[in-house]
Amino acid sequence: MLRWPSWEQRDIFILSKGHAAMALYSTLAVRGILDRETIAGYYQDNGTLPAHLDRCPEKGIEVSAGSLGHGFNMGLGTAFGFKKQGSPRRVYALIGDGESQEGSIWEGALFAPALGLDNFCAIMDHNNLQGYGRPTELCSFEPVAEKWTAFGWHAVTVDGHDPDALREALQEDSHGKPKMIVAKTTKGKGVSFMEDQLIWHYYLVTDEHRRLALEELA
C-alpha cells in the first residue's frame, strides 16, 4: 500500500465534476492509495466513499466537489496561492462541458490570465452530454477552444481517449498563460449499447449490463 504524497511540493489534482468520483477512486486504487476495502464501501450506507467527493487529502481527494463550477475556482485560488508563495507547484482541474455553462467558470476564465496563472491547467471532458441533453443544444458554448483563447488562455484540443495526445498537451508550453485542454470524448466509449446515450447518465447498471460491457471491453 503506497502512502499518499503529503509533502508540500506535490502538485494538486482537482476533480471539479465531482459526480465522476468513481473514476478518481478507481485511479487512486490502481496507484495503491486506496485499498480494496475502502473501494468496496463506495456509495453504501455507513460506507467509506460518497457518490460525490468529500475532501480527504490523505486519500488523494484534495477538495469536496459536487456543486459544479466550484472545484475549478478552488483550483484557481490554490494556483494563485502557490504563485504568491513563489512555489513551483502546479494545479490541474478536470471539468465537464456541461459544467462550463456555470457563470463561475467564466469568472475564473477571466481571473486566471489577469493574474498570470501559468501554473494552472484545466481539462474539459467534452463529451457533449449532460443531465438533460446535449450542451450544444441546451446552452451552446461552441466554439470551445476559441472562446478560451479569447479569454487569454492557451487552448489545446485533443482526442480525450488518446493517452499520448493528452500527455503531450499536458507537457506543452503554455507561453505564460493558464492552459485549457479540450478533450474530445464519447460517453460510454467502447461499450456499444452505452456509447453516446443520455440514458446512461442515470440508468442502473445491472449484473447483466456489467457482464456484457466487460465482454466488449475485454
Topology, pairings included?
Elements: E1 12-15, H1 21-30, H2 36-40, H3 70-85, E2 91-96, H4 103-114, E3 120-126, H5 135-138, H6 144-150, E4 154-159, H7 163-171, E5 179-184, H8 207-217
Parallel strand pairs: 1-2, 2-3, 3-5, 4-5
Report what the structure shows.
α3 runs parallel beside α4. The protein has a 5-stranded parallel sheet, with helices on both faces. The chain folds into 2 domains: 174 residues, Rossmann fold (3-Layer(aba) Sandwich), CATH 3.40.50; 29 residues, no CATH class. The chain starts with 11 loop residues before the first strand and ends with a helix. It has 8 helices and 5 strands. It has 218 residues and is α/β, with parallel strands linked by helices.
Poorly predicted runs are none
The CATH superfamily of the largest domain is Thiamin diphosphate (ThDP)-binding fold, Pyr/PP domains
Query: Count the strands?
Result: 5
Tally of domains: 2
Shape: globular
Helicity level? 25-40%
What is the count of helical runs? 8
Enter the CATH topology name of the largest domain.
Answer: Rossmann fold
CATH class of the largest domain: Alpha Beta
Termini gap: 27 Å
Largest sheet properties: 5 strands, parallel
From the 3D coordinates, which CATH architecture of the largest domain would you assign?
3-Layer(aba) Sandwich
* Main structural class: alpha/beta
Rg calc: 18 Å
Key structural traits:
8 helices; 218 residues; single chain; globular; Rossmann fold; five-stranded parallel sheet
At a glance:
The chain is an alpha/beta fold and about 220 residues long. It contains 8 helices and 5 strands.
